[in-house]
Structure prediction request, 798 residues.
Amino acid sequence: METGQHPQLFLAGCFAMLCTGIAAGKIIGVLSLGALMLPFILLLLVAVLLVWRRSPLCWLVFLLLFMAAGMVRFVVTDKLPGQDISHFACQEVKVTGTLRAEPRVTEDLTGQKKLRYEIDLSKVKVTGQEQEASGGMYVYSRVNPQEIPTVQVGDEIQASGKVRIPQGYQNPGQLDTKALLKAQGITASLSTGKRGITVTPKDTKAFARWIISIREHYRNQLGKVMSKEDAAAVFAMLFGGYEGIKPELLQDFTATGIVHILSVSGSHISLLAAVMAWLSGLLRLPKGITAVMVMGAITLYSILSGCVPPVIRSGIMGGLTFLSLALEREKTAGYILLLTGMVMVAISPLLLFHISFQLSFLATAGLLFLAPGIRQWLRGHQVPELAAGSLAITIGAQVMALPVLAWYFNQLSFSSLLANLLAVPVIELILVAALFAGLAALVLPLVGAVLFTGVSLLLGFVAEILRILARLPASQIWVPSPNVLGGAVYYLLLGWFLLKKEQQKFFCQQLGRQRRFWAAAGALGILVVGGWRYGQTPELSVHFVDVGQGDCCLVVTPKGHAFLFDTGGTRDGAFDVGGRVVVPYLLHYGVRSLDAVFLTHAHEDHAAGCGSILHKLPVGKVYTGAEGLSAYARSMGLGDNDPVLSKLEAARQGSRLQIDGVTIEVLYAPVLSADMVAGNEASNVYRVSYGGASFLLTGDLTKEREQSLLQEGINPESTVIKAGHHGSDTSSSEEFLQAVHPRWAVFCVGRDNSFGHPKESVLKRYQGMGSKIYRTDEDGAVVFHTNGRKMQVETYGS
Prediction:
């Protein structure tokens, strides 16, 4: 490739290699800055030399240089300063900081309010000594509704509690909460309980307070003319967030593939810019006025939405891109998108792992590089202009973002094509009308009320359309999660499709010169992969899923039959673990139905998630403990007459299920007497065996029940044990562990849980047995693979 040829292609390659370097830095994670600087400097010197000599290999060295730069930037950014609040993890402290955003208020099932404050730290007091601190922090507080403190952005906040490191569910395909928060500058959290916070008013950040007052104005005006749920939905369309929306409407948005409209992202910027550009075209306005309208709408929306980082990023990226399009400089738009993306990830490398940035960038790229060709093809097949334009944007965005959508969501929505034709134009009207209504209400309240009433009617129309579309046959299509190689091949093929003919010809010529080498490499690759696949023996996989402070184990037989043992859940029902953690995990591994679910007992941290799973996936039978149907219905949050409860059946001790060479035994199923209160003592014990490997799943089995099991002459010996009751000292007696004699032990626990699980004495007991210990709070999901003789273990903790 001669110097100066194909500049946009070269820029795309540099951006791709910069991202590759950042990803490599995260994956490797052990390289020091000093170890990276030497090769970076050497590559820089070589690049300068080759440019001076006008070498045709300049482009290759520059690509390697950008990859090295990505690794350096990640290492520099990932290391936190010594005074960062995260370095005080697990210590009781008193922190002082400045409120950086509007407090978030949520409500649990008892009506108690939970507040989340986002603050920038300035000081921390530990063991009586105060010192400077930095970093962002979430401060949580529980208060009664009448005791919510008055606080504004810029006020000084003081709070006391134990510092914790934010941690989400560490499972493949799950959002990396820790990385997402770190990209936003949040590195720790603290819970004050009912002690609350101390507020010192400060007369600062007037602009931020004005923005919040505008948002509050919109919230109040919406609440005056429509129901609480409808107001929450319109507010979410304007400014993002899911709080207060009807679950059914939220599910319909998800099923039709347009749930991104309820998150502040590039979609809002794209919608506003497209509406302004369309309106300008309709009025035949000059290019200059079109550009002013596009940038003005984006700037106004960015201010009203609170100037939060996702909006600022999307506003810059989408604004500059749409400005180029409005000025009919399509080629310039491609350069601007690539340069903007490159600058953003160079400044903040952690953005690369943020789903908002990923989808915003890819959707915009699909709009620029794919949509024009798709639109032209549709118009050539007699599709009307309006439909062709809408379909081209939707298809272009989804095709460009497909690997990311598949990794996180494992589904494509064919109904999204219809939703974008029928519902999204109305949503665009709602968005523009609601923004204008809020502004109008500032000077003419009656006009604002009339407009908001019209918005409410439009929302009802959208809700009905989405309800119908979400229930169409094949509305959602499952797609498998790609691995790194699959994603790379996908984008290479997509990139080849986007190349111009002369660029394709150039690469073909380059490949042709070494055709023997590439043919030999291809043949060797096929032989290696084919031999590896042929040499594989059938395996059983057992997944201990990270569901926080709860139990969940997925068993997949060599021929793909799937069984679930416990389903996780939260005691307060505030978070749907089954629907939002377990189901995505199953889909990530291609499990779209379950042969059976085995529940150890009815406690919420073991059974609550089952309700959502039964409603979202086909399930054969559900085997339970002896507590009775109503106990499980309450735990799952189901009505006593819910039809899925017909699948529940009490497990019988001694029963066995054999499939694909795997044996599932109900090893122990205690019977409860009438005067006994159902609880941990009701836990069933299951054992899964394949060849010489076996897995013992004990639920919350108590020491007394362990003794009863042994007295009945049951032999619990197993290769792997799921430690009883999350490592509590109420379980895992010395005598029981000697009988099991496990080589591996898995503790299913939540990070920094209030119970102090697992207990140190229990850990030492297992270590004394010579057991290798894994913990879901530290190791994330723990996956065992065995052919009945050998065992391999994978973990997914960060």
